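Hello Y.,

Per our agreement to keep a running log of every chain we model this quarter, I'm adding this entry. I've kept the format consistent with earlier entries: sequence first, then predicted structure.
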Amino acid sequence: MQNRGKILKLFISESGKKGRVEQSQLSLDLNGVLNDKFYGKDVERSVLITSEASYRLAKERSIYIDYGELGENIVVDFNPYEFPQNFQIQIGEVILQTSQRCTLCKSLAEVDSALPKLLKNDRGVFAKVVKAGTIYKDSHVIYGKIK
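Predicted structure for the entry above:
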């Protein structure tokens, strides 16, 4: 069974800059997101996918954060947090494979001290690139059984 979702936002981290920089497209190869400061450092954690649900959860607790502040590369309109390890996600020609749930980092506490505990299980999932290509904001996503 295939499910569909949508890419809402795309980001990279640039060397020497704090925070994420919004993009209209991301180019990916087997080492990760090109032009991202984390490119090639850990292919199992090449791409961080976060759901808009994480931002809603924070807002419900009066924590107002902008997209990108959770450190993600991709924001989607579905919940990837329950996907098992090695689950595949297709975005256009690109195929990503989940590798692990996102670990919490101290930078979240710098945004708001309650954020790490609040998003302990809802910050995002790391994925590696299985098939390279370019993804675009507003692209459709297929997840589930990929042909």
